[in-house]
Design brief:
heterotrimer, A mainly alpha (300), B alpha/beta (257), C mainly alpha (329), A: 300 residues, two-stranded antiparallel ribbon, B: alpha/beta, six-stranded mixed beta sheet, four-stranded antiparallel beta sheet, 10 helices, globular
């Protein structure tokens, strides 16, 4: 039982990470109907930026909670800019060019970020500095909760809460939802569609950057190709929850994290990466619109 | 026994009832029109007859066999062909290839095409000749190698008809074939439809908005409104039917006709 | 067969024989390897073009089928072929007779997998089909990675412990390019025929295709079957020319590369796929001096092309007159 609880805790923690990345996928799909394959690599850039920022600002040598937040802020800002730039340069010219061209471009941007990352950051793994001195916060028998895990979980939940607030309670969020629902109509209503899309990319990229930092905290080995698998899995999480749905991405991410950890813990660890894809195929076969999505029909 | 028999057809999409208890039959060789204001359910009825949707309730029988719920390609094989309200040509393909696809796309063998045994070339040439003949019959001979989406609008509509004819149907459903045409073009289309019907022994059901276009062409007119049939008979009688007049006038006083 | 086609076949076989005899004399092993990789890339790209370009189904898991072809053919050779060749004396004739076997084996295994993937996923459209195929490709790769009999995480060497003297490698550029020409011919014949118009009809408008009697699901499944077969053959050739395989060569990055070949060459152009596969496989080698910059240039090329010339190099046009009708434009 205690092992189960520990696994559950690990699963929720990873789930929070997947959820943060999944939110970026789902929001961009909502407004642009584009699968932004490059999103996982923004997560990698977030981790890398955090690494360099932490070293440059001296937090690597002196771990502290404020240091963590400053690093988070720096990385999220940098990646927000990166996301906006990618949208402006690579995707905006293809607005209205059908669904295929932007998908190819997204693949190109992904490859570009990976290879540029290898060039700029070096292909060898780095070790993310321990921005918090690790210690146990809580223990109940065999179940241990470290401050790192708690920080990751709390930060992820806070960020998700902040995003939910933005989406539901602000004008920008309303505009984002309008564009997701019907972009041409929103434009006719005076919604600045270009700025909304840009902002969506910024938000998504900031969350991915945060995910990168949080992963750096808990799994310190980082390298330029680290975004591939988590990126794909977060995408699966977004589909699981219903691509285009913000609560769906959160629930999907948490679910995927838990399922993956439990199956790995109780059944087999060599198939860890395959679990996400099996879930993907099952979802697409039996409920393609996901848990929170709505079906669409084509008029003949 | 009529060639096409629709009995008690109801089509529901979620909460919306598009067609309600429709009884409609067409004898072999007849030319019948299906009219009604926008949203009356005419295209939905066509879509059910051709297998795009399955009936929620009711039956569709063609040549005595039940076709309700069958796949569109099976219904085409049975002898039903159609054109579309919003032209659905194979846009990147040439006019000739659009017709060839209809001639050869249904009964094909990948193995035969890859191996190309004796007789393959003869078969291909024969099909191509037949396709060109159909194009000529529809006045499209000079457009044979042009991309389908480069054709003028009226020619595109005729190409869709040529493509439908290539499947050698017994029943041809024309969905708004005259949409977007000027009176002269409509006149020409009327003559063409009548000629095709004679030449190919077709039974034709056509949908159109333009009441006068339909009146001069068809022998019988059925009128749908809000998914229900409100009139069915000779054109003159239908034109004077008060329910029909109200359906159209009521629609015109709304947002758009 | 007509005299013209007999002449063409004879010329083809003569060219292959010349290539087989000349290549080892004229080329050093490095260039031979590059040329072999180009030939294999061409086969893989042309096979993908059938599904993506001609049938309009966006499949991005193609490397998974190559992996199945590579691993099944390698297992065939290591566990069955080595013994067979040994008992036949491993002479030139025996080898010539043998090597089609693992290729066909790889193709068939991949083709069956193509069916298994296609039947449930083909009711999905557009983006959803793409990610389903991506998922399938990854599941295949990870499943193979977990099979110890073919090496697992260590990779798989084309060497039989029981028959160590038998060279299971297939060092023949003529073989690779012979298969490449056959592949292009087969797919061109399939697509550029009256019946083959069904594939493009499905691409252009599925609902209209159904209305003219085309069984669209069956056509899509057929496209997947044939496409996966040739992908499997490409994978089998890869295994037998490289002599060692690892699932890392068949990740979704490889699938993305194949999609890039097909898109940059022009979705719907066999010639375009051939050119793009050849140039983009050769270029990184030629650009080797640039180090890491070659992959960056390659991805920039992809991005810029989609903005500036999304129809790729040739769009839907062909350089060779594949099955043109009389009086064509």
């Amino acid at each position: 039982m205690e092992n189960f609880l520990q696994q559950l805790l690990n699963g929720i923690t990873w789930g929070g990470i997947y959820a943060l990345i999944a939110l970026g996928y789902t929001m961009v799909y909502g407004v642009l109907k584009l699968i932004n394959f490059a999103h996982g690599d923004v997560y990698m850039v977030g981790a890398m930026t955090g690494y360099y920022a932490a070293h440059a600002l001296g937090f690597a040598a002196h771990p502290s909670l404020p240091g963590l937040f400053v690093t988070l802020a720096a990385s999220m800002t940098a990646c927000g800019l990166l996301g906006a730039t990618i949208e402006r340069v690579a995707y905006r010219p293809l607005r209205g060019a059908g669904r295929l061209a932007p998908l190819i471009t997204a693949i190109g941007v992904s490859l570009l970020l990976q290879n540029a990352g290898q060039l700029v950051f070096g292909a060898d793994p780095k070790f993310f500095p321990p921005l918090l001195r690790a210690h146990e916060v809580f223990r109940a028998g065999e179940v241990a909760v470290s401050n790192i895990q708690l920080t990751v979980l709390v930060t992820a939940l806070l960020l998700m809460g902040a995003l939910e607030y933005i989406v539901q309670r602000t004008r920008f969020g309303r505009a984002m939802r309008a564009v997701s629902y019907d972009a041409p109509a929103a434009a006719l209503m005076g919604v600045p569609v270009d700025r909304v899309i840009s902002g969506t990319f910024v938000l998504g990229s900031m969350l991915a950057a945060a995910a990168g930092i949080l992963v750096g905290l808990s799994n310190p080995k980082i390298e330029p190709l680290m975004g591939l698998m988590p990126g794909l899995k977060a995408f699966v999480a977004a589909v699981l929850g219903g691509i285009g749905s913000v609560p769906g991405a959160m629930v999907g991410g948490l679910l995927l994290g838990v399922i993956e950890t439990l199956v790995t813990g109780y059944l087999s660890s060599t198939y860890r990466d395959a679990i996400a894809f099996v879930i993907l195929v099952l979802i697409l076969l039996y409920r393609p619109t996901g848990l929170f999505g709505a079906p669409t029909t084509e008029k003949v | 026994m009529a060639l096409l028999e629709v009995t008690g057809l109801t089509v529901r999409f979620g909460g919306l009832t598009a067609v309600s208890r429709l009884d409609f039959s067409v004898d072999e060789g007849a030319l019948v029109a299906l009219i009604g204001p926008n949203g009356a359910g005419k295209t939905t009825a066509f879509n059910v007859i051709t297998g795009v949707y399955a009936p929620t309730e009711g039956h569709v029988r063609f040549a005595g066999r039940e076709i309700g719920g069958a796949t569109p390609h099976a219904i085409c094989a049975a002898g039903v062909a159609r054109t579309f309200q919003n032209i659905r040509l194979f846009r990147a393909l040439s006019a000739l290839d659009n017709v060839r696809a209809a001639l050869q796309g249904a009964v094909r063998s990948g193995a035969r095409d890859m191996l190309r045994g004796p007789g393959w070339r003869r078969h291909e040439r024969a099909a191509e000749d037949e396709a060109r003949k159909l194009l000529d019959e529809l006045g499209l001979g000079s457009f044979a190698d042009a991309r389908a989406d480069s054709l003028p609008y009226g020619e595109q509509r005729r190409l869709e008809i040529a493509r439908a004819l290539a499947t050698r149907p017994r029943l041809l459903l024309l969905d708004e074939p005259a949409a977007g045409m000027n009176p002269a073009e409509k006149q020409a289309l009327r003559a063409l439809v009548a000629a095709l019907r004679r030449a190919h022994g077709l039974t034709i059901v056509l949908i159109d908005h333009d009441v006068s276009f339909v009146m001069n062409l068809s022998e019988r007119v059925a009128v749908l409104d809000h998914g229900e049939k409100i009139a069915d008979g000779a054109p003159e009688a239908v034109r004077r039917d008060p329910r029909v007049i109200e359906a159209y006038l009521g629609a015109e006083s709304g947002a758009h006709a | 067969m007509t005299r013209a086609s007999l002449v063409r076949v004879a010329a083809f076989l003569a060219a292959l024989a010349a290539l087989q005899w000349l290549a080892p004399l004229a080329l050093n092993p490095y260039y031979a390897t590059i040329l072999a990789r180009i030939g294999i890339a061409i086969i893989a790209a042309v096979s993908l073009q059938l599904v993506n370009g001609f049938t309009g189904q966006f499949s991005i898991g193609h490397a998974g089928f190559m992996a199945l072809g590579a691993y099944s053919s390698a297992a065939f050779s290591v566990y069955l072929g080595a013994g067979l060749l040994d008992s036949l004396g491993d002479g030139a004739l025996a080898r010539l007779g043998y090597f089609p076997l693992p290729l066909v084996c790889g193709g068939l295994v991949a083709a069956v997998a193509g069916l298994v993937v296609a039947v449930p996923t083909l009711r999905l459209r557009g983006d959803y089909l793409a990610i389903a195929t991506l998922g399938a490709g990854e599941i295949i790769r990870i499943a193979i990675l977990n099979i110890d009999a073919v090496g697992g995480a260590r990779g798989f060497s084309l060497a039989s412990a029981a028959h160590p003297s038998v060279d299971l490698r297939f060092d023949s550029l003529a073989g690779v390019y012979g298969v490449a020409v056959l592949t292009i011919a087969a797919i061109a014949r399939l697509v550029y025929s009256g019946g083959g118009l069904a594939f493009r009809a499905v691409r252009e408008d599925e609902i209209a295709a159904e209305s003219i009697g085309v069984a669209t699901t069956r056509v899509k499944v057929e496209a997947f079957f044939v496409s996966s077969f040739f992908a499997g053959v490409a994978g089998a050739l890869f295994a037998h020319t490289e002599g060692y395989i690892h699932t890392n060569s068949f990740s979704f990055v490889r699938s993305f590369e194949l999609v890039a070949f097909v898109v940059l060459g022009g979705l719907g152009s066999l010639s375009g796929a051939v050119i793009a596969a050849a140039v983009l496989t050769a270029a990184p080698e030629g650009l080797r001096g640039l180090g890491e910059w070659r992959m960056i240039l390659y991805s920039l090329l992809l991005i810029v092309t989609m903005i500036v010339r999304p129809q790729g190099l040739l769009g839907q046009r062909e350089l060779l007159p594949f099955g043109k009708s009389r009086g064509a434009a």
